[in-house]
Amino acid sequence: MKEVGIVRNQNGNKAQVSIQRHAACGDCGACHVGRDKMTMNAFAVNAIGAKEGELVEVEMQFTNVMKAAMIAYGIPLVMFFIGAVVGFYMLNPILGAGESPMPAFFAGLGLTALSYMIIRALEKKGVFTKGYEPHITAILDKCD
């Protein structure tokens, strides 16, 4: 996946790049860009030495984009279903709720929240940083 952005600042071999949102993105919110905000800031590996103000091409491998989406959306979804099944078949008899879907729903929500907390904790420890960082691959317009 290739994007074009402007280097806003650099720190060693990393650079903060401001990337324009595409119309094809819609308003999914996955990149934390709202309707009113047309740019997002990302930190990218700056192995080619791009400087502030330069227009650059930023790339992240498609497989890594899909892996990141699976971590962010797939794991919590699976945890919701596991929680719902456990809640329905194990909590209903314990709580004496009969066939009520409420224990299943709340158990699913609980495991979903727990999965997001675990993912966030692993992210803070740097487990997901190496393979999922975008890289600046080309300088499109040099700053003089």
From TrEMBL:
<dbReference type="InterPro" id="IPR007359">
    <property type="entry name" value="SigmaE_reg_RseC_MucC"/>
</dbReference>
<protein>
    <submittedName>
        <fullName>SoxR reducing system RseC family protein</fullName>
    </submittedName>
</protein>
<feature type="transmembrane region" description="Helical">
    <location>
        <begin position="70"/>
        <end position="91"/>
    </location>
</feature>
<feature type="transmembrane region" description="Helical">
    <location>
        <begin position="103"/>
        <end position="122"/>
    </location>
</feature>
<keyword id="KW-1133">Transmembrane helix</keyword>
<dbReference type="Pfam" id="PF04246">
    <property type="entry name" value="RseC_MucC"/>
</dbReference>
<keyword id="KW-0472">Membrane</keyword>
<dbReference type="InterPro" id="IPR026268">
    <property type="entry name" value="RseC"/>
</dbReference>
<keyword id="KW-0812">Transmembrane</keyword>
